[in-house]
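In response to reviewer comment 3 from the previous cycle, which asked for concrete evidence that the modeling workflow produces usable outputs, we include below a single protein chain processed end to end. The sequence was submitted unchanged, and the resulting structure tokens are shown without manual editing.
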Amino acid sequence: MCWPALHIRAKLRAVPPILVFDTFSVFFRAFHALPPMNTRAGQPTSAVYGMSVLLLKLLREQNPKGLCFARDRPEPTFRHQQYVDYKAQRAPLPEPLVSQFALLDRLLDAFGAPVFGVSGFEADDVIATLARGFAGDGEHVCVISGDRDLFQVVREHVHVLFIGRRGQPHVLYDEAAIAQRFALRPEQLPSFVALVGDTADNIPGVHGIGDKTAQKLIAQFGTASALLDGLEQVKSSAVRAALSQATERIRQNESLARLHSDVPLPKGARYSAFTADAKAALRAFFEELEFQSLLPRLDKLATR
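The workflow returned the following structure tokens.
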């Protein structure tokens, strides 16, 4: 069992990147990508196994300068305060996944890398803040996630490795890949979502506005706010009327979709290298969970 092969549209630069993991997104993708797995004692392990496979793969292929993890907090965020139905449609997590959260904590502890979660914000906001800070320092960043919301953080020194669903390839997005897929710049994507909505987050779109129309409008006006300010310039009377009737929804949607890149992070190291101590801790953890197939892969990894 393994993750799908990486289909890279744009190669990472020769400079070793800092890997920033969208923890729960990767964890959930791993759970759904693999069939059920259990230890001899009956403990489910598929999610933590799949995530471990990906982590080892990226450590081997990218030899990163360091890594860190971002995760959601259990408290409501500012988005829930703005929109009570934000993500309200999501079903409860399956018990075999919930039972692995403690193992996830232990996996992260074994790596010894910083884990960031800030009350009132989502992991995506934390990642946007980390990516902005790293890029500002001249570092190269690879964000690992299965969440398209993070496409907006892509910039010159920041890529997003998008983890596909079961059977789908992973794709590395840089600015060119974003332009090829959306015909927009990364920073324009929240304005695009403001018009079409986002079913994953339970954000309703504007009735009658599809992807192609939204793309053309945002490409023309630049932002959702500029579009609303210039409605008289929209040629189609039907589109103009739909936008006019949904003005408040569009503004709210854009606010919900746009990530904050100024989250107050705790003081301390922002990332850490993969060390010999982490390697030893992972070996003990893998042996306990009967991940024998991962031990040779772990042994081959270089440490810093």
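The two ends are 29 Å apart (CA to CA). We consider this sufficient to address the reviewer's concern, and the full set will be provided in the supplementary archive.
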